[in-house]
Design brief:
With 86 residues, the protein is α/β, with parallel strands linked by helices. The protein has helices spanning 7-17, 34-39, 56-69, and strands at residues 2-4, 25-27, 47-51, 74-77. It is globular, with a radius of gyration of 12 Å.
Length: 86
């Protein structure tokens, strides 16, 4: 699964990678929506990729999602790919 903070982040990733995302995608409308993800059944996957913003809220949400999902899956914080940008 790939989790994006917003539709614009998802669209930007398509432009950045120049190819379709090869996983299921969750697009949040706000980082406050991470709590709904934590309450859903666990995805049928072995990896989760997090594409959240490089700001305080994005860092906090990344940490919470990593803490929750790392006991079940390999979690990748992909913010390093766009470290120069929010």
């Amino acid at each position: 699964w790939s989790i994006f903070e917003s539709m614009f982040d998802f669209l930007a990733s398509l432009t950045f990678f120049q190819k379709p995302i090869q996983s299921n995608v969750i697009i949040l409308h706000s980082v406050s929506m991470i709590y709904s993800i934590l309450e859903t059944p666990h995805p049928n996957t072995d990896k989760i990729y997090l594409f959240l913003d490089n700001d305080v809220a994005g860092s906090k949400a990344t940490q919470e999602l990593t803490d929750h999902f790392s006991q079940f899956f390999k979690v990748f914080d992909c913010r390093y790919l766009f470290a120069e940008n929010k």
